[in-house]
Amino acid sequence: MASIDVTETKDTLQVRSHVQYNTPEHISPQNVHTSPLEQFHIWFNEARNAGVREPDSMSLSTATSSGIPSSRMVLFKQLDKRGFVFYTNYTSRKSKELDENPNAALLFFWREMSRQVRILGRVEKVSKEESEVYFQSRPVGSQLGALASKQSTVIGENDLQERLQNLETLHGIEPGTKQGKLPLPDFWGGFRVIPSEMEFWLGKPSRLHDRVRYLRIEGSSDDEPQWTIDRLSP
């Protein structure tokens, strides 16, 4: 892929070119699944099979109660009939913002396939039982990291390593082996984004992209949502 053309001065950095997309596929309301969750399932598996690097990586955008936004990359962990699940520290910035304003936006960008999926919806915590099952499926090193990290807080240079060593001692875990089992912390667990809108984007030449949007029909249930499907201007 060619590098973009950039012009720089003392005070500015200006991008003068961009990558042209030329995907052979075509999407429209006529050829997508009637359910956006099923359509996501199809696209996610195609991304995996196409060798997309980290197809489970997604941007999560949250906002405070006053509307100040923030975004970060997180890992998608589960799709069920209600929505998209990710896990995090419940005392982190993202979690505090979701407590204040339980709405979020997700964005998947699969560069290798010139595809994006955009998701907007309200957010709920998953059950403690769901969080427990997932936590115990993680490598012990990741469990230790969840226990040790006071996510989003200021930390000293060596504090985290000291916490990890103390936790290994406390739980009888041999350094380097990472064998053992740790309890689920009270401050850690999952969130589920329940979509009210989803958009599937396919890159096309001259920025004339294919865009198909699903809007949930008002009054339809979370477990069996109904959708209107439209084509959007690029």
From TrEMBL:
Pfam family, one: PNPOx_N
Domain Pyridoxamine 5'-phosphate oxidase N-terminal, residue spans: 46-157
Taxonomy, superkingdom: Eukaryota
Membrane spanning residue stretches: none
Gene Ontology annotations of biological process type: pyridoxine biosynthetic process
Gene3D superfamilies registered for this protein in UniProt: Electron Transport, Fmn-binding Protein, Chain A
Domain Pyridoxine 5'-phosphate oxidase dimerisation C-terminal: 188-234
UniProt key word Ubl conjugation: no
UniProtKB keywords: Flavoprotein, FMN, Oxidoreductase
PROSITE patterns: PYRIDOX_OXIDASE (PS01064)
Pathway where it operates: Cofactor metabolism; pyridoxal 5'-phosphate salvage; pyridoxal 5'-phosphate from pyridoxamine 5'-phosphate: step 1/1; Cofactor metabolism; pyridoxal 5'-phosphate salvage; pyridoxal 5'-phosphate from pyridoxine 5'-phosphate: step 1/1
Keyword Oxidoreductase: yes
GO molecular function, one term: pyridoxamine phosphate oxidase activity
Cofactor needs: FMN
EC number(s) given by UniProt: 1.4.3.5
PANTHER family: PYRIDOXINE-5'-PHOSPHATE OXIDASE, PYRIDOXINE-5-PHOSPHATE OXIDASE
HAMAP family listed in its UniProt record: PdxH
Name of the protein in question: pyridoxal 5'-phosphate synthase
Organism: Hydnomerulius pinastri MD-312
